[in-house]
Amino acid sequence: MSAVDLLDLDSSLTEEERQIRAVVRQLIDDRVRPHVAGWYEAGQVPARELAREFGKLGLLGMHLTGYGCAGSTAVAYGLACLELEAGDSGVRSLVSVQGSLAMYAIWRYGSEEQKQRWLPAMAAGEAIGCFGLTEPDHGSDPASMTTRARRDGDDWVLTGAKMWITNAPIADVAVIWARTDEGVRGFAVPMDTRGVTAREIGRKMSLRASVTGEISLDDVRLPADAQLPGAIGLKAPLSCLTEARHGIVWGALGAARDCLETTLSYATTRTQFGRPLAGFQLTQAKLADMAVEWNKGYLLALQLGRLADAGKLRPEQVSVGKLNNVREALAIARQCRTILGANGVSGDYPVMRHANNLESVLTYEGTSEIHQLVVGQKLTGVSAFT
Ligand SMILES: Cc1cc2nc3c(=O)[nH]c(=O)nc-3n(C[C@H](O)[C@H](O)[C@H](O)COP(=O)(O)OP(=O)(O)OC[C@H]3O[C@@H](n4cnc5c(N)ncnc54)[C@H](O)[C@@H]3O)c2cc1C
């Protein structure tokens, strides 16, 4: 049990949920924690290798059923995200994009043939997927996308560009969202198709242990069966984002917990003015406030997870969770950094890495402002998006 679980919320987990969490925690301790500072510094991560190991444990598409997927509960998947992100947000992003975005899109909207072709290999980590919605000029407003898919006989021809796409440079398949004469549609695009190029985005100051890229689609000719038949309109990619955002609600708690545990340990051993930092009232006030926020975030995640398992989770509820838990996790990471003093800016401690990562988590999968607008619309009945 973590010292920060003041409310003993772990006691509301089932034995199976606890076991899954323990397995993922051990994997992160063995395979990620010893190396992640180096990956982050180098801006390179052995993503394919990790994907195979995560696949062996059933972490990819973990909450989906059939096609080699584990079929776990939403809460168990959330706990796995929490442990993954306690290692690094980039590592959790690898799993989220693979399972909740790329695999989920194919699982929910794909043909039986598409599912058979991609899902078992993706669940095993043998094939990597990415999800291309954002464009260079259209992020928060995907309805304005300019990537176009036009019919040419039985084929489709795709033209456009997607930007900030996690896993793109290493992906085998991209789920690409494009405008057609009938509205937005999704396509499973093999990355080795002629006309598809992926360029890695460098100089990131955040999520450095995650591969991010830009995808160019230059008259990419695809057979008719590349289209995801069930994906009709923008609500299809938005439903995938709801899936992934649920994982982030949990994941952000993992980054925050790692910061808190590191800081508690530091504050009890580092001495100034003849006593441990933990003995100063100002330090205790910071620690208490952070632990209270963390426990509130855990309660929130548990409620959303239980709603998801009951099939009752609504998008605006996920917005409440993403808005609160990422915002609070980032505040916790920054506050923890102050307690570590100069060591807080060192890569020898995970705190500033988590804080930098959480800047991306705050922005992707809907920025905080967009989630405020979703919640505001629910409260008032008025859309303030445009
Ligand atoms: C590391 C990383 C990985 C990513 N991975 C993926 C991926 O795998 N797939 C994918 O499709 N995308 C991905 N993204 C893109 C991400 O989803 C977008 O960056 C995000 O949706 C915001 O879009 P934008 O960056 O274009 O910002 P903009 O939409 O230009 O927004 C800029 C600012 O304006 C605010 N704003 C915009 N509209 C409004 C409004 N109506 N009212 C008030 N404020 C507003 C925003 O909240 C933000 O603060 C990734 C991003 C990062 C950083």
UniProtKB/TrEMBL annotation:
InterPro entries: Acyl-CoA_Oxase/DH_mid-dom, Acyl-CoA_Oxase/DH_mid-dom_sf, AcylCo_DH-like_C, AcylCo_DH/oxidase_C, AcylCoA_DH/ox_N, AcylCoA_DH/ox_N_sf, AcylCoA_DH/oxidase_NM_dom_sf, Glutaryl-CoA_DH_mitochondrial. Keywords: FAD, Flavoprotein, Oxidoreductase, Transit peptide. Residues 14-126 form the Acyl-CoA dehydrogenase/oxidase N-terminal domain. Residues 130-220 form the Acyl-CoA oxidase/dehydrogenase middle domain. Its cofactor is FAD. It comes from the Bacteria. GO terms for biological process: fatty acid beta-oxidation using acyl-CoA dehydrogenase; fatty-acyl-CoA biosynthetic process. GO terms for molecular function: fatty-acyl-CoA binding; flavin adenine dinucleotide binding; glutaryl-CoA dehydrogenase activity. Residues 233-379 form the Acyl-CoA dehydrogenase/oxidase C-terminal domain. Gene3D superfamilies: Acyl-CoA dehydrogenase/oxidase, N-terminal domain, Butyryl-CoA Dehydrogenase, subunit A, domain 2, Butyryl-CoA Dehydrogenase, subunit A, domain 3. Belongs to the acyl-CoA dehydrogenase family. This is Acyl-CoA dehydrogenase. It comes from Micromonospora craterilacus. The lineage of its organism: Bacteria, Bacillati, Actinomycetota, Actinomycetes, Micromonosporales.
